């Protein structure tokens, strides 16, 4: 495997929307993309959002109709970030242009590795990924599953790529949908908690600005403490929860509401929907 600070091979990101764009920005910041990143988007307006990033060439398909095949032909790693329904047509388009030994990584939710392997042939290593939106600030969590033709070197290369935008967890494909209900959807759960905590603060007489500041910074600070301490979150919770104190009374309300059951039910519902999407429903 290449050294951690060595350059990544040439990369193409086909369909560089929110997630693909976040990865392009992470690659640009990392300094590892010295051999180049080519991104594609359908519109010039969307492609313009990535203009000016170091080492990144951003193509608009409305100006460069062969942009996807041109980008794929020039890359050793191809990330597919188009909408799931568009994936089969895109794979048929780029398959003849791929380099021998190319690594193709799916960013598309619900599209199986088998779908990629069937359309791309034996000479291509396929991996399936599930990044999340904190990749936009370099703090993402990406689940990564290897296909049948992805060897250790291909996995290591893909891992280095995604580590430019955060943490990587390698899982079998059978766990990708479950992972999506935790790290993939997890930021939305967090934002919902901050939203409701802000409403609670406003309801106690604080201004909207004060309520938002208290809620956001309390969660951000708690997360920073959790990361810095390395302690179990249950232990940190116990340290804040003095016996017979105010926090203990509040925690009791959460426990009486069966917050544990709510999280299990919510992630189960997300998993059921992921499986429906995988079946095209």
UniProtKB/TrEMBL annotation:
Family: Belongs to the pyrroline-5-carboxylate reductase family.
Domain named Pyrroline-5-carboxylate reductase dimerisation: residues: 173-277
Top-level taxon in the UniProt lineage: Bacteria
Span of domain Pyrroline-5-carboxylate reductase catalytic N-terminal: 11-110
Pathway: Amino-acid biosynthesis; L-proline biosynthesis; L-proline from L-glutamate 5-semialdehyde: step 1/1
A matching Pfam family: P5CR_dimer
Compartments, as annotated in UniProt: Cytoplasm
EC number(s) per entry: 1.5.1.2
Matches recorded under InterPro entries: 6-PGluconate_DH-like_C_sf, NAD(P)-bd_dom_sf, P5C_Rdtase_cat_N, P5CR-like_CS, P5CR_dimer, Pyrroline-COOH_reductase
Organismal lineage: Bacteria, Bacillati, Actinomycetota, Actinomycetes, Micrococcales
Keyword match rRNA processing: no
Species of the source: Microbacterium yannicii
Protein name in UniProt: Pyrroline-5-carboxylate reductase
Keywords: Amino-acid biosynthesis, Cytoplasm, NADP, Oxidoreductase, Proline biosynthesis
The reaction(s) this protein catalyses: L-proline + NAD(+) = (S)-1-pyrroline-5-carboxylate + NADH + 2 H(+); L-proline + NADP(+) = (S)-1-pyrroline-5-carboxylate + NADPH + 2 H(+)
Function: Catalyzes the reduction of 1-pyrroline-5-carboxylate (PCA) to L-proline.
């Amino acid at each position: 495997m290449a050294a951690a600070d060595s350059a990544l091979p040439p990369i193409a990101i086909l369909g560089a929307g929110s997630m693909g764009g976040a990865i392009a920005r992470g690659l640009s910041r990392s300094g590892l993309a010295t051999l180049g990143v080519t991104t594609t988007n359908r519109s010039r307006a969307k492609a313009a959002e990535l203009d000016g990033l170091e080492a990144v060439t951003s193509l608009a398909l409305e100006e460069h109709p062969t942009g996807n095949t041109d980008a794929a032909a020039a890359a050793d790693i191809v990330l597919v970030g188009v909408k799931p329904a568009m994936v089969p047509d895109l794979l048929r388009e780029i398959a003849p242009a791929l380099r021998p030994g190319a690594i193709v990584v799916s960013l598309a939710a619900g599209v199986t590795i088998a779908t990629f392997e069937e359309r791309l042939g034996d000479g291509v290593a396929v991996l399936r990924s599930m990044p999340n939106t904190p990749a936009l600030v370099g703090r993402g969590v990406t689940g990564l599953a290897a296909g049948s033709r992805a060897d250790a070197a291909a996995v290591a290369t893909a891992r280095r790529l995604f580590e430019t935008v955060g943490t990587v967890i390698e899982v079998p494909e059978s766990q990708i949908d479950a992972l999506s209900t935790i790290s993939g959807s997890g930021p939305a759960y967090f934002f919902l908690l901050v939203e409701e905590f802000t409403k609670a603060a406003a309801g106690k007489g604080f201004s909207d600005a004060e309520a938002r500041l208290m809620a956001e910074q309390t969660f951000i600070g708690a997360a920073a403490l959790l990361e810095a301490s390395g302690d179990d979150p249950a232990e940190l919770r116990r340290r804040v929860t003095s016996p017979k104190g105010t926090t203990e009374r509040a925690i009791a309300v959460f426990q009486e509401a069966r917050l544990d059951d709510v999280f299990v039910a919510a992630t189960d519902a997300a998993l059921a929907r992921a499986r429906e999407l995988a079946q095209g429903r």
